[in-house]
Write a structure and sequence with these properties.
Blueprint (H helix, E strand, L loop, with lengths): L3 E12 L2 E13 L4 E5 L6 H8 L7 E6 L2 E2 L5 H11 E4 L11 H11 L8 H10 L15 H13 L5 E5 L7 H18 L3 E4 L3 H4 L4 E6 L2 E7 L6 H15 L2
Parallel strand pairs: 3-8, 3-9, 6-7, 7-8
Antiparallel strand pairs: 1-2, 1-4, 4-5, 9-10
Amino acid sequence: MPILQAQALRKQYRLGEHTVHALAGVDFLVEKGEFVAIMGPSGSGKSTLLHLLGGLDKPSDGEVTLAGHRLSILNDNQATLVRRRNIGFVFQFFNLLPTLTAEENIALPLIIDGQDMRKHQARIAALLELVGLTDRRQHKPDQLSGGEQQRVAIARALVTEPAIVLADEPTGNLDSKTGTAIMELLRRSCDELGQTIIAVTHDPRAAAYADRAVFLRDGQIIQEIKGAGADEIGQRLRLIVNAMEELQL
């Protein structure tokens, strides 16, 4: 059974007197342990799709099933609980709390869920090691570089061992070298931890780290490119760039 499934997903907005069809019937499956990149031009529906998949917004029609939970039949409190315990979020602008240390920011989802941070020290320490920040654990965000802050955000997304991690332009606010390091880290979390990841990105170099790239335009999936494993990033990059040229993206 897929870890995430969207069926006939539609989302409409009212913009003045006009109706905007942000998503126009999207069917989408993600298997456990898969790394998927969502690409497309501005206004294609990428972020809308990510928000619906993560239960941050409700579709106008269609269904999202996350880790066996049909989101449409949940009330707000139930949806919040499912989201908190099954999804890790990584945002473009990090969204770290400035008064907390790196270690405390990583532990925040556990604290919000009412768990004792002290009982999860081994998990937090392992994640600090994974993201290469063991020696920066007591530093606050303003003492960290942008890349280090994003590493903290990734560790925070992984701390609850979520069914899926959703990343919205995770390299969009970083230089190319740091962005590459972040995508390598996400790739490692997929390969070494079996983490399922969906990342929205406009960057073909970032998308090449995924197992599969899905292209959206006008609220519909128009093409997919599948890779053959983590060792063929260069091949996937060439396929993605060629597809973008053909699709005029």
